[in-house]
Specification:
By secondary structure, the protein is of the alpha/beta class. The chain folds into two domains: 132 residues, Serine Threonine Protein Phosphatase 5, Tetratricopeptide repeat, CATH 1.25.40; 218 residues, Rossmann fold, CATH 3.40.50. 44% of the residues lie in helices and 12% in strands. It contains 16 helices and eight strands. The protein has an eight-stranded mixed sheet with strand order 3-2-1-4-5-7-6-8, with helices on both faces. Strand 6 and strand 7 form a beta hairpin. Helix 1 crosses helix 3 and helix 7 runs antiparallel to helix 8. The termini are far apart.
Amino acid sequence: MSLDPASFVLPAAEIRRSLSRASPGDVVLIAQHCLRIGSYAYAAAICRAFSEAGMDDPALRLTEAAALFGAGDHDAALALVDTVLGRWPEHPGAAFYKAQMLAERGQPGAARELLLGAIETFPDFPGAQGALATLFMPGPYYRDVLSRIHRLLGPATYLEIGVETGATLALARAARIAVGVDPDPRPLKRELLPANARVFEEESAAFFAGHARDEVFGGAFVDLAFIDGMHWYEYALADFINVERWSGRDSTILLHDCVPLLPLTAERQRRSKFWVGDLWKLLPILREYRPDLRLSIVPTAPSGLVVVRGLDPSSTVLSERLAEIRERYHDRPYPHGALAWPDGVSIVDNSEAGLKRALA
């Protein structure tokens, strides 16, 4: 008899007696509670006790599969998921579970195909697009990439459009002046921010219209800027024009959310939790109207990071041709299918060497 409390589970008959009044949903809920606290053996035992007694429920089998996988019995877990997919081929939960398991086992290609199938069935399946992003763009997450860019460049001045919680503004600890702009930073965790950080609670258009660079940065250029605001291209384009005007020739601008995973996430109107809007339009606009700029994509989840170098603060091309740009691009549909890279933009490795190449 084992005295290890972690290995103890009630016999199947006792589990069924204890939960005799439970519905299938209740049983799954209790088993998933066991998963949350790390009791994989108990979760599997609860599921098995009821499946052996004739409870035929895909959620019960998938929960048991998750428990088996967590306990290290990967083959049995995958076999159980396959039984669900055999009976319910379009079950998005089963496809999602199997994709996660295959990704853990080093089969990213098969995992991507399963996730795409789950998303086709349920476009907003929770977690599916995020998991797909990490498979399509493996390597350090975008906040880690931002942190490495700060270390490589060592900017004395930093400007961020779109602050949210302050997690990315907090990366500018070495900067002499760090400025964030956000009209509604209600989730802002000010305890994250360094002493050199200042947040302007206003829309970016109002910020640039109401403040001068000399006032905000004491006459210095913006060494590094991160644009991560409104997910409509015209707002980001206006932010780019204004930020470039405050930059120097050797400054760097970073653009977020310009690499959609799917056409669904690239629409102007939001129809999914994972959504980047039509910020992808920035890349063809900059390529066409500002071919002097050097654009590089760092493939980092969830939606890429674009490094813009070769800035020209004196350029007026974009501002002078805004009406033309809007007329040509405003209603343009996303031109690609799933998991596509933008045309004509250099893609560097998501590594130290790749970042140095993009920042050169």
